[in-house]
Amino acid sequence: MSSAPQDLSKYRNIGIMAHIDAGKTTTSERILYYTGRSHKLGEVHEGTATMDWMVQEQERGITITSAATTTFWKDYRINLIDTPGHVDFTVEVERSLRVLDGAIAVFDAANGVEPQSETVWRQADRYHVPRIAFLNKMDKVGADPEMCINSMREKLNANVAFAQIPMGVESAFTGVIDLIEMQAYVWLTEDKDAAPKVTEIPKQYLDDAHIYRQELIENLADFDDTLAEAVLSDSKVTADQIKNALRKSVIEIKIIPIFLGSSFRNKGIQPLLDAVIHFLPSPLDIPPVEGTEVEGIVAAGKRSPTPEESFSGIVFKIMSDPFVGALFFMRIYSGTIKTGDAVLNTLKNKKERITKILRMHANDREELQFASAGEIVAVVGLKFATTGDTLCDIKDPIAYESMKFPDPVISLAIEPKSSGDLDKLQQSLNKLAQEDPSLKVSTSEETGQVLISGMGELHLQIIADRLLREFKVNANVGNPQVSYRECISVPAKASDSFSRTVQNKTFTAKVSLSIEPNDKTNVEVNVPNKSMVPANIVAAIKEALVGSVGSGTLCGYPLVNLKVTVTDYSFDAQAIDDVVYKVAASNALRNALTLAKPVMMEPVMKVEVVVPSDYSGTIVSDINSRRGQVLGLDTRGHLQVVHANIPLSGLFGYETDIRSLSQGRASSSMHFSHYEVLPKNLQDKILGF
């Protein structure tokens, strides 16, 4: 089967993003059902959600990977990606947003903006992704659209406006009022096959509808001259004028329209789908994609999203497959690719061959002969590609900006049960690390144990579970451990010289450098160029220093908040061996670090606990006992929300502990905040003093 007609104006590449339990996957399942992509409703709580295809997802009722599918609504093609909401899998969100044109941000109507909502919102901002908002669970006790819109303005700094208002809330929620067309959508039953009844707006909602419609118009008038003139002249504004202005403003990320519903109750999905095709961008609405320079391979450039352009695309996800080895998910930005084509992997400067092109529906697949600009497909046959790589026409190369992923904050040891299991363990971990850029695999220098490091306790639990069950590895899994960092307290200077003899010639290099604390988390390394010094010598010194900062002098943890400046280095035209420069630079850095009073730093998590007010005092006391700092308390209906910063070392098993303290009525969420210097008594304990 080949691809559908290439009318890119009718393509929508969108993702669904939210905090965990806001209803993303349930919303995705309803979208698939009402668009005819699936013929039965999958439910997260029953483990039958189509988009949650992994065993671990079905067992836990959460989304772990980004599942992709293609469906159709009113002759529009929607390439849909359902992303995880748990902070441990935020990398899945990151790489999905990198290739999407638009997004639906789902919020729990009773909770408003929650911690992971903020995280994914910032990710969408970073990639300039236009979005619409969907207030889900309007039938839930405590549902409050006004609270939600205020929290979005306050916490997300978002310009939001209602495009719909509800007809009733909580158990009385029966439908929505469309402020653009000024009509009501009423769901008379919760039957999954019941279409909404379109009616005139009931009298009791008419005044509110006019007020909120005027608010929407006045908001849009700030960005649309036609509406501005209509407002100033007090002229009647038509639905088409609002639609045109809203589409333009959404694409330019100047406004976020809010839609309402209850996915679980089968209410609000059809109007939401209409909003996707009316207001979110097609690939043609996105500016031409800018390429970056890759020295010695390709200059900067740009590509327009048309099938006639030279081919280019980004690999944004890799998935192990028992039948074909690996599936490489790719967003095609320009041109057309056919089965059997050879392409260039720009960042690796390697030729690759596409042996299969697949359109995915969660874990099912449909083979294609070709795919073109605007499509999201999976391809088979790549040998060198990793997440973030650009694939392009060999004769017309381009390179797109790759992706940045956060460093791990937690580790655990995995030990094969026999020496015969070691190879299988390493091969399996290599496959998992290829899939998941946030998973780091290393070997402890002290114990020789294999260590896996990731974004949180749940992240590593899932990895360990997949090793044992999916890859059939016989191994013992240790307890999670915090991944600390090291930094320096004072500036220092040092130097080192190193000599080695090769074929009766002695090569000597001397490197002098200074180090100082830096307020940036990343390490900054500066190596000045000298006239007449070959570029490979400068590169060798920098390479050695960048490699050395991955292991501090206290416990071997990565260095952060550090600026390294090479102040001088010797050069002898006869000393062409760059190894001596690497060793001298590494030793000089080690010497400086020992003089700079190094200290350990620990990851601190931003934690939000939602608990009945009767138990808030108990929760606050418990936070203090974990060396936490309470930042504030909010009221959310009859519940208290406790905001705090807590060191990660005090959070293992936290969810279980707070449920015990609150008789099962508290819940928490957390995400990484920052690193802080570890108290000296705890550092001494770790160092064995």
Automatic annotation (TrEMBL):
InterPro entries: EF-G-like_DII, EFG_II, EFG_III, EFG_III/V, EFG_V, EFG_V-like, G_TR_CS, P-loop_NTPase
Domain Translation elongation factor EFG/EF2 span(s) in chain numbering: 481-597
Gene Ontology MF terms in the entry: GTP binding; GTPase activity; translation elongation factor activity
GO-annotated cellular components: cytoplasm
Protein role: Catalyzes the GTP-dependent ribosomal translocation step during translation elongation. During this step, the ribosome changes from the pre-translocational (PRE) to the post-translocational (POST) state as the newly formed A-site-bound peptidyl-tRNA and P-site-bound deacylated tRNA move to the P and E sites, respectively. Catalyzes the coordinated movement of the two tRNA molecules, the mRNA and conformational changes in the ribosome.
HAMAP family registered for this protein in UniProt: EF_G_EF_2_B
Name of the protein described by the UniProt record: Elongation factor G
Organism, scientific name: Silvanigrella paludirubra
